[in-house]
Amino acid sequence: MTHMVSLMKKVISIEKLVKKYGKLAAVDGISFDVYQGEIFGLLGENGAGKTTTLEIIEGLRKPTSGKISILGHDIRHGIKDIKEQIGVQLQSSAYYNFLTLREILELFASFYSTQMDPLKLLQMVHLEEKSNSYVNSLSGGQKQRFSIVASLVNDPQIVFLDEPTTGLDPLARRNLWQVISDIKAKGKTIILTTHYMEEAEALCDRVAIMEKGKILTIGETHKLVGATHNPYRINFITKKINTNLFNEISKFGEIKNLIGKANNFELRLKTQKELNQVLPLIQQLDPEGLIVGRSTLEDLFIQLTGKTIGE
Ligand code: ATP
Known about the structure:
Layout: H1 2-6, E1 10-21, E2 24-35, E3 39-44, H2 50-57, E4 65-70, E5 73-74, H3 79-85, E6 86-88, H4 101-109, H5 118-124, H6 140-150, E7 158-162, H7 170-185, E8 189-193, H8 197-203, E9 206-211, E10 214-220, H9 221-226, E11 232-237, H10 243-250, E12 254-257, E13 264-269, H11 272-283, E14 289-294, H12 297-310
Helix pairs in contact: 6-7
The structure holds adenosine-5'-triphosphate.
């Protein structure tokens, strides 16, 4: 419900943004808004234009055309005011190795009028014991955690995270999801890019899926996922290949063999009614495994971006 309330206030507004590199329109006339207190995800294949979009909003690249306003300031004129109120996660390789974690945070904070206590920041990501260590002595997950809190030194209202969990193991990734949720819980707005659909589905209130510089779809994550074709799925494993039963089952929806697994099948269905009707037929195949589920953001992503690959 808090999200509904926060929907009232736009913190970022983008109109007809274009970025050209020579003839290539890396960003091709996109418009969208980001609302206070939400986690907004920019998704898309490699080269879709996510990083370019993010870096233009952060003031790091100049747009070819279009209008961007952040917290009421037009970025063409108000970049100084904006910089005080945004935080940008840098790649961990961008940090000095002759300063300790604490010293880096102190240095970064000194550029701003509002400054967070470095030790409190390190505590937030359980790195307080590393406050006197150097970045190159940290593990991959610790570096990522550090680079996220380093974006909070000025207690910003808006935080930009570009692929915050890339290359991490599953547990470290979940730890970072917690860190990102904690930042949201402090009332901040977060814009992130990710290639992990599971991550976007877990974290993002809204997502935009980009392709070739354009937005294919944008909206509340759960609503977009709910509106996929054939939103119900049954996965089952059986060695009993009864042709008659398979024919009956395939009348309900699309049945596929999972890649590389001869006895694993997936059936996609449009309605819950079909789901209930087809389950007894599948049970007659003595399935060794049976999973009933709903579509995910990954299904939507493949449905949208896969379409143009096939064409
Ligand atoms: P990824 O998921 O791989 O990080 P992305 O969605 O972030 O991709 P961008 O990095 O924004 O994509 O790149 C969009 C397009 O613009 C790509 O075709 C890329 O090659 C091109 N591009 C990006 N930066 C430049 C640049 N400085 N000069 C020329 N072309 C660029």
